[in-house]
Model the fold of this input.
Amino acid sequence: MIKIFLTIVVLLISSNANEVNIYTHRHYPSDEVLFKTFTEKTGIKVNVVQANADQIMKRLEEEGKYTPADLLLTVDVGRLYYAKEKDLLQPIESKFLEEVIPFNLRDKEGHWFGVTKRARVLVYNIDSVDPRSLSTYEALADKKYKGSILTQSSSSIYNQSLLASIIAHKGEKEAKAWAKAVRSNFARRPTGSDRDQMRALAAGMAKVAIVNTYYVGQLINSKSFSDKAVAEMIGIYFPDQGEDERGTHINISGIGVTKHAKNRENAIAFIEFLCSQEAQKVFTSVNYEYPVNKNVAPSRLLQSWGSFKEDSIELYKIGQNNAKAVKIFNEVGWY
Amino acid sequence: MILELKQINKSFDRPVLKDVDLEVQQGQIISILGKSGSGKSTLLNIIAGFETANSGSLHINEEVIFDKKKNTEPQDRNIGFVFQNYALFPHLDVKANLLFGVKNRKNKTLVKKLLEMVGLEGYEKKYPHELSGGEQQRISIARVLATDPDIILLDEPFSSVDTLLKAQIEEDLLKLIKKSRKTAIFVTHDAKEAMAISDKIAFIYNGEIIQYDTPQNIYYHPKSKVTASFFGIANFIDEQCYRLDQIHLDRQEGMYKAQLEHAVFRGEYYELHISVTVDQRQYPFIVFDQNGLHTEQEFYISLDEK
Amino acid sequence: MINRWSSFSYILTFIIILPIVLVINHALGSETQTLIHLKETVMSEYVTDTLILVLSVAFVTLILGVGTAYLTTFYQFRFAGFFVFTLALPFAIPTYIMGYVYADIFGYFNHFHLFLRSIGIEEYFNVLNIYSVIIIMSLVLYPYVYLLVRASFEKSKSALLNPALSLGSSRKKIFFKIILPLSRPAIVGSLALVMMETISEYGITEYYNIKTFTPAIFNTWFGLHDSKSATYIAVMAMVMVLIVLIIEKYNRGKADYKTEDTKAKVKKQHLKGYRLYLTYTLLSMPIVFGFIIPLIWMGVYSYEYAANILDEKFLGTLTNSFVSSSLTAFIIIVLAFFVGYTSRIFPTVMNRYLSKIISLGFTMPGAVIAIGVVMLIINIDKWLIENYITKTLFLGGTFFTLLFAYIVRFFAIGVHTVDSSLERISIDLNRASRSLGHSYFKTMIKVELPLMKNALLFGFALVFISTVKELPMTLVLRPFNYETLATKAYTLANAQMLHETSLYALGIIVISLIPLSVILLKRHV
Done:
């Protein structure tokens, strides 16, 4: 009796609609616009749960083969790497994606793909710093920066990725020495968001801050008068641009199809849409991110900051070194 | 027999009641007397069903209400309980308090009758906090009477009453209970009070009822020195107890010779601490004197047997 | 002997702590390596920050809460009614929003800083630090103490009338000797809630980078990918709170906190002269900083956006918040009342500690509970599927999961409000009713329920508001496309869309006002 009742209820609530279900960490206005456009174009409904990637991945893991989620969308490569390790994603093949996304920005086996790029750069106070005096991330370890560096805490996934890239390039020992030296150059105990670092920088509290570029874009286009003023007080510097240097650290916001996706075809169509010219233009113009699609140019604002050499390391290596980075942060007291 | 307790045992961290037996006849007024911590309140709670004994049995009207297999809930025991602080429901007015336990609400005159009985006519709409202590007590008894219980249990009903008013309230309460012809069991720590109101007194000491008898018997023939001294000044010749009213003093003649140790002036009388010689053995006595014997070194005493 | 009441209570407790048990079970056999790493590196920082934050917040809320409750209960002055009501309002503002507001006002290159510059002061000060967090959390949390202690004062103030007690004693003496001790269950209960909520707070501690146990758990779980050690830390936090609670219970010993509930009117003292103005100042401070300033902030930002207030999306979100919060609050209060009543009528050792055990969920960060809830619900779902009852997830990812998580998390609030009020009602009233022929159940309905009506409404309001503000669990556990005011405000704040953020934050305040008004505008409160 109960069985019959439950079956009826289940039949009533489970619809086989044409849809795609996404667990996403992204909380940007650009995404809402894109979801809507996708539905308009394909008739596929987009259902979203937006939450912290670590936690929503745990939900995905527990739900196992019964998960309703078809896609996992994160703001960094570390989580995607880990999701693959945990066997939460499945490989897909897409000629289009392989063609437009550079090799280093996607998983070799097709488990995940970059959707946008974000560069972690140095910003400086234009009053007190001559950009020519800046050079590399490594240079921030120099004693001359004592009391003049601002950055987020070590719980920032972007800082973790940056350190992971240094580990990947130079090994743990050197990375640890760097983190320790940078830590001793902090202007204050890390606190606040990337935006707050820039505000303090503009106020003259320090000389340099380590931030993601799209936050600069947000300040420039902010409705707030004071944020606009902050943007005018700071300059962007892409580090590691020298000939024998590796290029500015970039991370991706990326996506993968879940292992037990029920709407696999829709999911692939959705990823292809996100990497299409149309969507990529929205990402770069609304959210100030760099497009992953080789054929799409960054928005005019992003271009105005200049072009730069990117660190072309295969991004999975960053994911690989993420836990090591956290350990080093703990060890050197970069709270 | 209306109430019968057999071999009741109860312990919390330590034994509180040990093999308690008690029999109460219909219409009797009984006191359970003891000092605090003697187990008297626990015993009352066990009779009411608020606490559960570890072993033993309990019968009301020859019917088992508690034993190994059965434990009747308090609501089904038909026992009325008058609490030390009266426990009137503060959110209800007097009328609602009185009718709280009444199943048949059709009897329109019940409230009126009850209020008349306790002498609080016209109090229907008052709330407990508007009543004096004595009034609250009367309402709480009326509330119990309203349900027509087999037995009424009263937990230290006079402990929070002003000493000046105590005698009056004691008398009123007793009249009420007698009029209702109910069986009543009082718990008290005051021997005088117990003697004044009870047909029988159960004296409880360290969790045991060591004597259960009429006030007169327990007063004049206590079975132990503890009991004896709990009820007032007790003088002993060997195991025999003599109360003050059994002792007569005389300058010239008497049964035994007495020697004054010291005298204490207490206003109406002198309290004399004397040494009585019986068969060449000395016994310490305390006696009251209103005849000026405190100035004598030696005199005689005579003893009444009861 | 286990009876029906107790067994229901045990089953309920079991179900509610099951998610926590699952998470703890997960932690058994911790990888000692990670723990050694943490011990050698950041653990001392975690412990220090946690202790500083928890103890400071407890201290400040104690002073603020008891002080405001005292002034508004025992003194008569103009606008007293206004203060009684508004003093509770800071509770309606989510901590992370408050943190955001103050960072936006006082942070570098923000409003206050620019104002100082405009009048020629080049000073700047860092507000993104632990002192701000202490102040902000105290402002949000002191209403717990204020509301519970005030209710308790109201009940015990008749001690002032009792001639035997007041004989020759000054009001001050009676307050400290009688009323304050009588209110101890309320003070301790509310402080326990404050401490637990401080430990489990995540939003503001992360933003201001304060290393309490909660960020430690996240760092270990998701940074070092060691869920076992993370849970170990969570359990450590729980044990700390448990120890505090047991010490308190033990200390309290056999002291009796029952007073007769009376409706007697106590004449309040009139305040005049400088003492009146001092009172106004003292009472205004938490209101201004805890409510007015954030409210102005929201008002200013949402002003332009106000036309969109009847936007369908906003109303839908508002409805979601209202429905989930009232359901949660109703279920919790009914169940907490039931559990509290059971331990009252069967005061076994087990029953007495049940309410402590059941409220442990409150020390755990919401996200950790969420994981426990997912584990439990999915396992039930798997069982259903394997037994061919359902084909897909029936409970997982539905509103039911979320509701269950809310109940697990906020049960503590219900239990503490119910317990502190139940402890004040003499057991004799219950016994009187039963010896007058009523069953346990009928007695509960006829005696305890009406006597506790106000306390239950309090509990309802507190749970309701906490649920409206809840964020981390809602984010992870919600069904697809489900938004509450809190998730919306958070997402928008992250995207730096302050105008829209403040609109949703205002929404939180508005619906929190509904239950608050009900309890505070009642005559007898």
User: Anything to note?
Assistant: Chain C touches chain A through 67 residues (CB under 8 Å). The beta strands of chain C are 75-76, 269-270.
